[in-house]
Structures are given as C-alpha cells and as structure tokens.
Amino acid sequence: MTQTDPSSVPLGGHVDPRFEAVRAAFVENFISREEVGASICLVVDGVTVVDLWGGWQDAARTRPWQADTLVNVFSVGKAIAALCVVQLVSRGALEFDQRVSSVWPEFAAEGKSDVTVRQLLSHQCGLPAIREQLPPGAIYDWDAMCATLAAHRPWWEPGTAHGYHVNTFGFLVGELVRRVTGDTLGTMVQREIAGPLAADFYIGVSEQQLGRIADHLWTLAPPTTAPEDLNESQRMELCAYFNPPDFSGAGVVNTTQWRMAELPSTNGHASARGIARIFHALEEADRSSGFVSSAALREATAEQVHDDDMVLHRSSRFGIGFQLTQTERPLGPNPRSYGHFGAGGSLGFCDPDARLAFGYAINTMGPRWQNPRNGALIEACYDCL
Questions:
Q1: pLDDT for 135-165, tens place per residue?
Q2: How many distinct structural domains can be found in the chain?
Q3: Within this chain, do residues 86 and 226 fall inside the same structural domain, yes or no?
Q4: Are residue 308 and residue 194 in the same domain, yes or no?
Q5: Is 38 contained in some domain?
Q6: Which helix (DSSP H) or strand (DSSP E) does residue 188 occupy?
Q7: With a threshold of 0.90, does the pTM exceed it?
Q8: Is residue 297 within 8 Å of 98, Cβ to Cβ?
Q9: Longest dimension (CA), the chain
C-alpha cells in the first residue's frame, strides 16, 4: 500500500475542537488508506461539529475537492428512496401493509398479488434480478424496466426469505412512488426532501449541477461468466449486479447520461453535508413528528429481516428500506442506528440515541462490506462523543 504525504493533500472545512480525532482519521485515510477525494459531515445535537472535504475530484489529481463537490454515493440513495415512502405513509397516502398491486395492478403477475409495501422495501419480494438478458442501456428506459419487473416471476416465494435488491430496489420503489404521487422519485426528493432542507442530494442531477461532480474512480467490469453456465442461485446473484451489463454503473458512472438519469438504487449524487442534513432531519423527527411522522419513521427503522441474505450470502439486517446496525457492519455502538452504505464506502446514517447524523461521500472504490475508511471515521466520531 502506498503512503501519501499529508502536506500534499488539499483540505478544507472546519472541525469543533472536541472532534479533532475525526479530522485526524480523515487525513489518515489519505495517508495510508488510499483515499483520493472525500467529504465528511457530522451533526450532533443539531450542531455541525465536522464539515471537512479534501483530496481530488479526478484520478490525475488536478482538480481539488471543493466545499460543494458532488459524487456518486450509490446505495446511500436507497435510504432516501425509503424516506419518500415514509413520507407518503406519514400523510396517509400509503400504508406499509398495503398491497403493492393496489396501486400498481400489473405487479400482481406471477403470484405477487399479496406482496406488501413492507415486503417490497425490506428486500423480501423476490425480485433482486431479471432472468431475461437485457442489452446495455436498458436501465435508461424506466417504463420498460418496471414493466419487466412487474411481469417477472419471483426467485423465491415472497415473504419467505430476503435478498438484497442491489439495483432493482430503485425501480420498484420509484414506480411505487410514481403510482401514488404521479411524480418520479427524483422529483419528490427535490420537492419534499432535499429542497426544503437545502441538502445537496440528487437522484438525477440537472445540467446545471454537472460541473460540480467528481469522477468516481471505479473500473469494475462485468464478469465474463455466461449466465447459462451457472446454477439458479449463481445466476440470480450475477444478474442482480450485471443484467443489464451496466446495471451497477460498470463503465458508465462518469457519463452524463448516468448522472442525469433517475436510478434510485445506484446513482444518487451528493455531498457529505447534503447526506448529513437529511439524516439530521430524521434524527429530529424521531423525537417529534414534523418532517415525517415519528411513528412511521420508528416502524420503518424497526427490524424486519435479519438472517442469511439470498444475494449477499451473509447476514444482513433491514428495516423498511433502511439498513440497520449489525455486529458484522456496525453503525456505531448504539442499537437504534440506521441508514445506508454505498458501494465503495460512502455512508449516511442516524443515531437517535447519540443525536448524531453522519454523512460521508467518496470517489474511490474500497472494500464493499467492511470498509476501513468509514470504519475509522465512525470509531473516531464515537470516541469524541
């Protein structure tokens, strides 16, 4: 592992003196953990105690990270998609135990008529992948993707198991939101969440925002194994990530088309400050309804599943759309923490007991399960509390 001279890394922002250990961990990520560009923001008791950015927006290290730099934060967007549903439940426009087919009739095909909103968002509905091989670019045809999923036969009987819906989650939840509101999920995020909170978080960036986006330094390519050479379980896992071939963003994450599309599972673009502002609003809502109903939020962040994951092949723990803290992948030491990790290490979470909101956005792919960069930052944060 190469070491970076800390004096060569551009840094900006501020830190409350009590949280200097977080600054030290942030800098150490650049020195010894191969960070290239990142931002971190922590809000504690309603006060922003850490707001840092550093490094570079590109592999050549010619564009320093700025205070308002955006970057693809991948599955952190799943939590924001879930929040849209929590808002609809808070307003009485939807219920967690309502059948999805009641607002999306086509979804009832192939034995899915009884699938509930709760099951859909907690990865229990059996649609983590598409069997029919789709061509590159199919992800940009929203109507066709949703029609394919609605007509699809589940990989397991809904409600009997769960498996991480890596990419299909965004289409499923986004279409649910569209059927209820008439708006796309990205539109709802801007109108109801990011806009009112002045939070830099976008599912589908506008042309005006393109100049603020850092390159994501990710070269993951689809595997060469043909689906027909695999058993059913292996095929499901492969297709969850790579059918269509660019499903997870492979080869396209830095294209304008990817950035401007609405792909809620994978192409949320944000700053750490934007992530933290949203989770701070949730931390406040946990104590008093306003942004969302505290009752709906607490139900959404209560455990729904916690056992072997059919796609990840390890234990995963979910509420209704939110990842929950677990021993294998902790969000701090407190039991009620919830949020969502993004591929490579980006992270947003809320700890209602510590009154903490945490946002972290990066442009360098790291370990996908237990990431040493966000792990070091979480540890330093709690050491300071």
A1: 999 999 999 999 999 999 999 999 999 999 9
A2: 2
A3: yes
A4: no
A5: yes
A6: helix 185-188
A7: yes
A8: no
A9: 60
